[in-house]
């Protein structure tokens, strides 16, 4: 079956009214290349049916410098090829402030948003997310800040990343508009969103789940422990049957969850980006999907 037999089906980003692709392209390693090279990667993502692009102000930071580099490079690409911006649903994040490490105060987030927009040379982002929860900011203050961003027209929808179920619930209780997204780490090797109830909360509230590190930080490609090797083997069984790569099988495993989770793929290789179109042809039986889950858990289900 060819990739053309399964065209990407756009879906709603929470209750925002935005339509996005079932896979996102992440720019956490999008730095250190020329604007021309950056454009090539973005075009490859478009060609693979992707319209959701995820970045953050911290992307590019190496522990000493580079804060904002990924956004700045994206801004250079937009300046050189203005037509690209209008084709994407652009998401960015703020709130990580090395070496503090986190700040979600109203003053900081408002300034961080404006700085992100300047770097990307755009006047608006479709989605703005709090990157990590700041324990020292009351959720009511965060809620008012996010609502102010929406009212300003600089932001089209709001979300959170790396929040717990309790933190999401607390923030939502102070919001008069719905959260569009939550962004946890989620992969066959990181099952916490399933076990914590996060994906259940997302389904109950119609919040889109964006999965970062869907390949387990590279451990799915290069498994080390016995448990990782078992999960990789289970993925390989499906990959061989479907005629796709192990990575594609992993992405499709995440996407098979009824929460309609969107994996954020971070490859900076145009050929591998092109392969993402293959994911839409993969269909999982219950047995196949649970085989991966059991292998990843390292123990049988109850």
UniProtKB/TrEMBL annotation:
Superkingdom of origin: Bacteria
UniProt xrefs under PANTHER family: NADH-SPECIFIC METHYLGLYOXAL REDUCTASE-RELATED, OXIDOREDUCTASE YDHF
SUPFAM superfamilies the UniProt entry points to: NAD(P)-linked oxidoreductase
Protein name listed in UniProt: Aldo/keto reductase
InterPro entries recorded: AKR, AKR_Detox_Biosynth, NAD(P)_OxRdtase_dom_sf, NADP_OxRdtase_dom
Residue intervals of the NADP-dependent oxidoreductase domain: 22-289
Pfam family, one: Aldo_ket_red
């Amino acid at each position: 079956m060819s990739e053309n037999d399964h065209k990407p089906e756009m879906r709603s980003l929470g209750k925002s009214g935005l339509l996005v692709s079932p896979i996102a392209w992440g720019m956490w390693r999008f730095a250190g290349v020329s604007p021309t090279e950056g454009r090539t990667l973005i075009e490859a993502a478009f060609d693979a049916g992707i319209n959701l692009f995820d970045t953050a102000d911290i992307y590019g930071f190496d522990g000493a410098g580079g804060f904002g580099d990924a956004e700045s490079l994206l801004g250079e690409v937009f300046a050189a090829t203005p037509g690209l911006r209008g084709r994407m649903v652009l998401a960015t994040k703020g709130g990580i402030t090395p070496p503090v490490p986190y700040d979600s105060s109203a003053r900081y987030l408002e300034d961080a948003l404006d700085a992100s927009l300047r770097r990307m040379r755009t006047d608006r982002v479709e989605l703005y997310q709090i990157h990590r929860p700041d324990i020292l900011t009351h959720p009511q203050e965060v809620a008012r800040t996010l609502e102010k961003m929406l009212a300003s027209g600089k932001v089209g929808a709001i979300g959170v990343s790396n929040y717990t179920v309790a933190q999401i619930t607390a923030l939502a209780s102070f919001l008069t508009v719905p959260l569009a997204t939550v962004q946890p780490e989620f992969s066959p090797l990181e099952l916490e969103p399933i076990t914590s109830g996060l994906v259940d909360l997302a389904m109950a509230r119609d919040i889109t789940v964006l999965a970062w590190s869907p390949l387990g930080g590279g451990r799915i490609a290069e498994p080390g422990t016995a448990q990782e090797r078992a999960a990789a083997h289970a993925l390989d069984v499906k990959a061989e049957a479907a005629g796709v790569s192990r990575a594609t099988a992993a992405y499709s495993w995440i996407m098979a969850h009824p929460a309609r989770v969107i994996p954020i793929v971070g490859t900076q290789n145009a050929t591998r980006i092109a392969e993402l179109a293959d994911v839409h042809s993969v269909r999982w039986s219950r047995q196949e999907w649970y085989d991966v889950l059991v292998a990843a858990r390292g123990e049988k289900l109850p």
